[in-house]
Amino acid sequence: MKQFKICFLLLSVMIVLLACVSTEEEVIAEEKVIAEEEKVYEGISYYVALGDIESAIAEYEKAFDVNPEDPETANLYARLLMLAGENQEAREILLKIILKDSENVSAYYSLSILAGIEGNEEEQKEYLGEIIEKQPDDTDALAMLGEIQLRDDELEEARESFEQALDADSENIIAVLGMGNIMIQEKEYSNAEDYFDKAIEIFSEYSFSYVDRAYVRKNQGNYTGAIEDLTKAIELHPDFYWNYIDRGKIYLLLEYKDEAAADFESAISFDANYFLAYMYLAGIYYEFGISCYDDIEGWDWDLALEYWEYALENYKMSAFLNEEYYFVYGPMGVLNFVLDDWDEALESFVTAYEKDKKDHTYALLAALTYYKLGRDSEAANYIGAIAQTISQDTWFYEVANYLKRPSYDIPLVNYYKAEENQTIKNRILFYLASYYLIAGNERAAQTFFIDVETLGMSGMIEKILAHYELVKMGTE
Prior knowledge:
It is a single chain. The chain folds into 4 domains: 1-135, Serine Threonine Protein Phosphatase 5, Tetratricopeptide repeat (Alpha Horseshoe), CATH 1.25.40.10; 162-237, Tetratricopeptide repeat domain (Serine Threonine Protein Phosphatase 5, Tetratricopeptide repeat, Alpha Horseshoe), CATH 1.25.40; 239-322, Alpha Horseshoe (Serine Threonine Protein Phosphatase 5, Tetratricopeptide repeat), CATH 1.25.40.10; 325-472, Tetratricopeptide repeat domain (Serine Threonine Protein Phosphatase 5, Tetratricopeptide repeat), CATH 1.25.40.10. The chain is 76% helix and 1% strand. The protein has helices at 8-30, 35-50, 53-66, 71-83, 87-100, 105-117, 121-134, 139-151, 155-168, 173-185, 189-202, 207-219, 223-236, 241-253, 257-270, 276-290, 301-321, 329-338, 342-355, 361-372, 376-387, 395-404, 410-418, 422-438, 442-455, 461-472, and strands at residues 293-294, 298-299. β1 (293-294) and β2 form a beta hairpin. The longest helix has 23 residues, at 8-30.
């Protein structure tokens, strides 16, 4: 879920654009200008709502021909230019308005929006201050100032600005959404939901109100409601990447993996250059492969490999796009191993351990892979250095010492016999079996691998790799 941030800026521009349209229609009505002029402004509103800014600007040209000296017409044009990215031209128009009329609040408001677009927060605050000084109950200026304060984690100041705005206009949607986000940060999710309910009542076509309400619903355990809200947000904004990510994550919480996978695929279709969807999708297909094991029927190994090939493809893409997200390297190593690419497996295991030394599993697997590649001295040096950093009262230390000099297995065998935890015994047995296989003792290796596969917990890395070795040995 997005980090409690609302797309206030776009919403602000849309609101003031439409407000400007309304103002112009009132002016036209007062001046009793012909009905055709009203259609001009309706056309601007229509094209803005569609996101067709070029057509909206073309409609403006018609309005300008009717009333070229009107400052509100110029202000509308500047706002349209801002939406089109023509910031400098918009600024020049707005500053000319203020030179002619220093009390023109609409122009100051537009300049504050422009400063926000350009990331100039101090300038934005200055313009908003000018407005509030001239009109202390200007709800739009108060709401936008509150949004800036919220963004800067000035919660009390933001609350004061939003509440003042709501006192003047209880349906100011920016202030309503802002209060909802303050409630989120204070973990008052029920109160937050009330604000988002109100925001949706005020403006039901704004997708991010549903996104925010989905967040608070999820945090209250209402997963069904959260999915409904995100589905509505997707209907309103079908090409927004994060809505698919958020809904997919909730599907995962509910174990709806097929639906989650479909959402992550959709996210990739809209933004193929961000790593997160690939990472989640890879994890799902990794789990699909594990689910191909049944305690009675055993493995459907061919299907598992099919799932894992796709998982590996997505893990690799995730790592390519964000190499610092280290969680992918361990699974990548396992999948490279079972898909017979030991060089890539070694690189993945080494990288996984370099980036996260809390789990020594990947160091042990890296050493084992060095041996499988015939790089014995590198294996011994690698694991020998790591063994010095591992706590000596753990089974990891015992296995690391064994892999440093695997021809001498008595200490690890004794440790294995004394160990009472069955899961740890199975994991130790895998490393004994693996080196027995490398050393040519296939009979002992096969016996131990069968024990690991039979007794190991579902999803345990050593259980997967034990079955791989049995398949390679022709016993499965």
